[in-house]
Amino acid sequence: xxxxxxxxxxxxxxxxxxxxxxxxxxxxxxxxxxxxxxxxxxxxxxxxxxxxxxxxxxxxxxxxxxxxxxxxxxxxxxxxxxxxxxxxxxxxxxxxxxxxxxxxxxxxxxxxxxxxxxxxxxxxxxxxxxxxxxxxxxxxxxxxxxxxxxxxxxxxxxxxxxxxxxxxxxxxxxxxxxxxxxxxxxxxxxxxxxxxxxxxxxxxxxxxxxxxxxxxxxxxxxxxxxxxxxxxxxxxxxxxxxxxxx
Length: 246
Ligand code: ADP
Description:
The protein is α/β, with parallel strands linked by helices. It contains 10 helices and 10 strands. The protein has a 6-stranded mixed sheet with strand order 6-7-8-3-9-10, sandwiched between helices. Strands 2-1-4-5 form a 4-stranded antiparallel sheet, with helices on one face. A hairpin with a 2-residue loop joins strand 4 and strand 5. Keywords: ATP-binding, Nucleotide-binding, Transport. It comes from Roseomonas populi.
């Protein structure tokens, strides 16, 4: 099956420093894949290459078999790439309903022309409310985003990314800074994501990674150390050496 997202020999230098070293990853449609690696392994650089923030020095990026390597960020979004950010990108003064409505309206605009959302205000709000319900945010719908607990703000970020109906979703440390008590909600929400979307999770919390992912790529010094199932990765002595100094 054509991968939803694939990199072929992806390589990137910062000056003389090799930050991404011939990386091949492949996510089939509906994948639940995680990217892990110690600090400085090149995870953020890889995300920036995938989203188009950076242009690779060499190699290719394909979405659904189509070349997106040199494509601008917004065109990749239109091709079905969506992401969340490590750093909170929300508008604190809006409500969750307003925030998701904007994302839904934006998608409709991209799908069908600028005039559609104007005539479909009711449909936009209805879909936004339905999405918020899926993320357990119905009761928070009309509150000020800035007043929500941090874990719920992170959930809202995932809801916003999903409102674009992506084929590929990059989750960039969705649990970063989230207190332990709220982490289960994040895990439940990302586990419940629709199977139409292939998910690439970048996350430090290994518990979350191992409970979410069906396959894992381990990145070290910019290169793929190994790829496998969570069980294979957990049992690999090279991975244990990197993480535990064994
Ligand atoms: P990770 O996200 O896995 O912690 P990064 O992708 O942030 O890793 O960084 C990989 C390596 O590339 C690090 O050694 C980092 O110092 C270096 N690096 C990242 N961004 C830049 C940059 N803009 N200029 C120079 N070096 C960079």
